[in-house]
Fold this sequence. Notes:
Blueprint: H1 12-23, E1 29-32, H2 37-49, E2 53-58, H3 65-74, E3 79-81, H4 93-100, H5 110-116, E4 124-126, H6 131-135, H7 138-149, H8 155-158, E5 169-172, E6 177-180, H9 188-197, H10 224-230, H11 232-251, H12 261-270
Parallel strand pairs: 1-2, 1-4, 2-3, 4-6
Antiparallel strand pairs: 5-6
The structure holds iron/sulfur cluster.
Amino acid sequence: MLDQINMSGLNKVEVAISRIQMFAPDDGYYLAFSGGKDSVVIKALADMAGVKYDAHYNVTSVDPPELIYFIREHHSDVIFEYPRYKDGKRATMWNLIPKKRMPPTRRVRYCCLVLKEGGGNGRFVITGVRWDESSRRKNDRAGLELNTHKGKGNSVLDDPDNPAHEQMARICPTKGKHILNPIIDWDDDEVWEFIHRFNIPYCKLYDEGFKRLGCIGCPMSTKAKEELERYPKFKQAYIRSFDKMIKDRIRDGLKTKWKTGKEVLDWWLSK
Ligand code: SF4
């Protein structure tokens, strides 16, 4: 069946499978599963490669409900992980915003570090990161890369949403994990071609116009406003969280130009 797939003049499926087989660790891969199209592809490829793995989904608290239903229905083997603070309390977007005293922004995406990037320490992690995902947000990335080069932050290189500097395989020394990105050189069309050729189920949100799936209201999304209109309960939760953030800022003697959570939300969505 593999010889039927010959994407971009190169059998990328065979190449991806070889990559997965080549690095397969004895204890199996830690497969970072987001439920999106890239994740369903790497999970299918890992099955085709016949390697051992355990798949994990980080519950961020701003997950689209349809995505959670999809994972539960089609990927019952995926382990749901609930990010926690050092004291054991569950970390959510709602308690993280007041804790950080500011909303997450494109330049300060602290939520990724706390809610999305945990897990897999000391393991060989397999991800669906692709260069093509970043090229569409080239302008955003250019500014962020500049920031990194100036030494103002290091979150970009670690952020799976910004794989500009990502490699096919690398070691993350700080977290003691190896990372494999077997479809890093696939483009969107190749991902969809693979999904349709092999009849791989995917989340229905793609058929409702979503190009990317992720956190509701993500500051990296150009559709955050529309997302919050679609999910009004999440919009209200953001406003409550911003209200709490303002109270905590005032209590700590920090300056704030906002009086209400709604004002913060309007500012946030206008960015
Ligand atoms: S994907 Fe967006 S909203 Fe979700 S954790 Fe990362 S920056 Fe935050």
